[in-house]
Write a structure and sequence with these properties.
By secondary structure, the protein is mainly alpha-helical. It folds into two domains: 31 residues, no CATH class; 57 residues, no CATH class. Helix content is 43%, strand content 9%. It contains four helices and two strands. Strands 1-2 form a two-stranded parallel sheet. Helix 3 packs across helix 4. The protein is globular, with a radius of gyration of 14 Å. The chain starts with a helix and ends with a strand.
């Protein structure tokens, strides 16, 4: 998110740190650390998606058996539970 905000591709009403903190509190979310297992899984994924950040999200979703929320069509090529989040 920080990169997208810095590039002007993700406008936020609040500074990034307070935005994330407040949304995590409101949604009762917790952070997910990147582990060596996540890195190894991301490295082993087929190269459908070349963005390393997205590959890490895919690996974390697979290892944690979590649903991933995205509007990226490339995510459909991986064995993950995906909640489509495109604007209608």
């Amino acid at each position: 998110m920080g990169i997208k905000v810095a590039l002007g591709k993700l406008p936020l009403a609040d500074p990034l740190d307070s935005y994330i903190s407040s949304r995590m509190t409101v949604l009762a979310m917790r952070s997910l650390e990147i582990t060596a297992s996540h890195a190894l899984q991301a490295a082993a994924l087929p190269l459908h998606h070349r963005d390393p950040f997205d590959r890490m999200l895919i690996a974390q979703a697979q290892i944690g058996e979590m649903m991933l929320v995205s509007a990226d069509l490339m995510f459909n090529k991986y064995d993950i539970s995906l909640l489509w989040a495109a604007k209608s």
